[in-house]
Design a protein that fits this description.
Blueprint: E1 3-10, H1 15-24, E2 38-47, E3 62-75, H2 79-89, E4 97-101
Antiparallel strand pairs: 1-3, 1-4, 2-3
Length: 105
């Protein structure tokens, strides 16, 4: 079965809880290695509307938040489980994530 790449953005204090949740859902395996991921620091921005409840910052203004971009591989058949696990473990009301297809050469 082919893998896809799951990428998400998270504050440092929630890094391990989101990684563990995604790994427990079947992600992060490369050959005989488990819990494989890569992450780097950056800055996330958002402007929450009047009905939002941001975990960081305030609604109604643009926020600039230090975050980590986390990447891992997920078997294609487990991506829905990994996304559900990520959303449940993530502190944000609307976590940002991307799913990329991977070519098997």
């Amino acid at each position: 079965m082919a893998n896809v790449k799951l990428v998400w953005f998270v504050p440092l204090e929630a890094l391990e809880q989101t990684r563990s949740a995604v790994f427990d859902a079947g992600a992060g395996r490369i050959g005989d290695y488990e819990r494989c991921s890569w992450y780097t620091a950056g800055t996330g921005t958002f402007h929450g509307g009047e009905t939002t409840e941001p975990a960081v910052g305030e609604r109604g203004r643009e926020e600039h938040v230090p975050e980590l971009r986390v990447e891992t591989v997920v078997p294609e058949g487990r991506i829905r489980d990994a996304i559900v696990a990520l959303r449940l473990a993530h502190p944000y009301e609307e976590p940002a994530y991307d799913v990329y297809p991977l070519l098997d050469q």
